[in-house]
Write a structure and sequence with these properties.
The structure is a single chain. α10 links the parallel β12 (about 305-310) and β13. The protein has helices at about 35-50, 65-70, 105-120, 135-140, 195-205, 230-240, 255-265, 280-285, 295-300, 315-325, 340-350, 355-365, 370-380, and strands spanning about 20-25, 55-60, 75-80, 125-130, 145-150, 160-165, 185-190, 215-220, 245-250, 270-275, 290, 305-310, 330-335. α3 (about 105-120) runs parallel beside α4 and α6 (about 230-240) crosses α11. It is built from 13 helices and 13 strands. The strands form two sheets. The protein has a seven-stranded parallel beta sheet, sandwiched between helices. It has a six-stranded parallel beta sheet with strand order 10-9-8-11-12-13, with helices on both faces. The longest helix is centred in the first third of the chain and has 15 residues, at about 105-120. The chain is α/β, with parallel strands linked by helices. The radius of gyration is 21 Å and the shape is globular. Helices cover about 35% and strands about 20% of the residues.
């Protein structure tokens, strides 16, 4: 395990200047899970570091190849060893995401407690994992340490001081009723979206969008296991519009990188970018995006980027439906049911309706302002 100095940054509160605060994150990432959970935790860790906190990430060993994402930003990483065989889950079905954890919650809690003992006094334990719930949180509790649970699903109970759900869904204000302690502070909605500072910076450079579509950004996150990127590119190619410029962004863990690269080479005015670190700038420059749900939904909203959205995971459906109902996106459905022809039809319709595209942009901008991480940081340190 490597440890690094925290990133430099401003220190707003005088009472924090001399304090060395320890925060522990329990989060995983993989091709199947995507990078969204890790990405938003890193964003929050960076915000906390700017106010004197040191963060340590606890990740399963199967995510070891992604540990550099935390270490390169000055955060420590400890890997929890995976068992050679998945243990039985007596009396514990684990829910639809049970396969995301190569062990059961009890063993994960045991390993987390051991890691916490080695790390020393920690003020906060922040957990972002669909398999872990109130049982794990209670097992990991210790005197003087508070828990923040990050959730999107509202399908399980939590024992935490703060619950963060940055999504826009129906009945948002009541969806955790009875699932968290009465005294729990609930941070709900996209005003708490955990976005890196560069999105707020690029928002400040954003001019009013005209609604005309001359540049399209295609990005389905860090992994895109079903290769929706290729589907979107085929749809764009079928339009045969020579003036269109296309930026394609794929993550380092994309299993279809070679085929996407070959497809991009066959198309005019298409630029493939692997692991782009300027995604906020690319979103600002684009007139339209084709992409998935998840964290990118709020990144695009922050920059008022109209979007043709395809759900690549079941848990994205409610949020994409709500965004479509608000008028911020066009939701064409779940990946399994979306065709190249369907995407092409939507693209053609939008290209003929700049007023609709402009309205989508204005609606999106009103939902997310880019200051969510600062609001969560304030809630933690207040």
């Amino acid at each position: 395990m490597a440890k690094h100095a925290r990133p430099g940054g401003r220190t707003e509160d005088r009472w924090l200047k001399s304090m060395n605060r320890q925060v522990v994150f329990r989060v995983d990432a993989s091709v199947e899970m995507g990078l969204g959970h890790l990405t938003r935790c890193l964003t929050l860790a960076d915000a906390l570091a700017a106010n004197g906190a040191q963060s340590c990430f606890l990740m399963r060993s199967h995510a070891s190849a992604l540990a550099y994402l935390a270490e390169s930003r000055g955060h420590a990483v400890r890997l929890l060893s995976d068992p050679p065989e998945r243990p039985a889950r007596p009396g514990d079905g684990g829910g639809p995401y049970a396969h995301w954890l190569p062990t059961n919650w009890q063993q994960d809690a045991d390993q987390t407690r051991s890691a916490l003992d080695e790390i020393g006094v920690s003020e906060w334990l922040i957990v972002d994992h669909y398999v872990l719930d109130t049982r794990w949180e209670q097992a990991c509790r210790r005197d003087g340490m508070r828990i923040l649970a990050i959730d999107d699903l509202a399908d399980r109970d939590h024992d935490c001081e703060i619950l963060l759900d940055q999504n826009l869904v129906r009945r948002m204000e009541t969806r955790y009723r009875g699932r968290v302690p009465a005294a729990c502070m609930q941070l709900l909605g996209p005003r708490y979206a955990l976005l890196r500072p560069d999105f707020a910076t690029q928002r400040g450079l954003l001019g009013r969008r005209s609604g005309e579509i001359n540049r399209i950004l295609v990005c389905f996150g860090g992994s895109d296991p079903t290769n929706e990127t290729a589907k979107a590119l085929e749809a764009i190619a079928s339009l045969a519009v020579s003036r269109l410029a296309v930026d394609v962004v794929i993550g380092a863990s994309n299993p279809h990188a070679a085929s996407v690269d070959a497809l991009c080479r066959r198309m005019a005015n298409v630029t493939l970018r692997r692991g782009a670190n300027n995604i906020a700038e690319l979103m600002r420059r684009a007139d339209l995006s084709i992409g998935a749900g998840g964290v990118m939904s709020w990144e695009r909203c922050c920059l008022g980027l109209p979007t043709v959205a395809i759900g690549i995971a079941e848990n994205q459906a409610d949020v994409l439906t709500a965004l479509a109902a608000a008028g911020a996106i066009v939701h064409v459905g779940a990946a399994a049911s979306v065709t190249e022809e369907g995407i092409a039809q939507v693209l053609h319709s939008l290209s003929c309706n700049p007023g609709q595209v402009r309205s989508m942009s204005e609606t999106a901008l009103a939902l997310v302002d880019g200051d969510g991480a600062e609001r969560v940081r304030h809630a933690i340190f207040s």
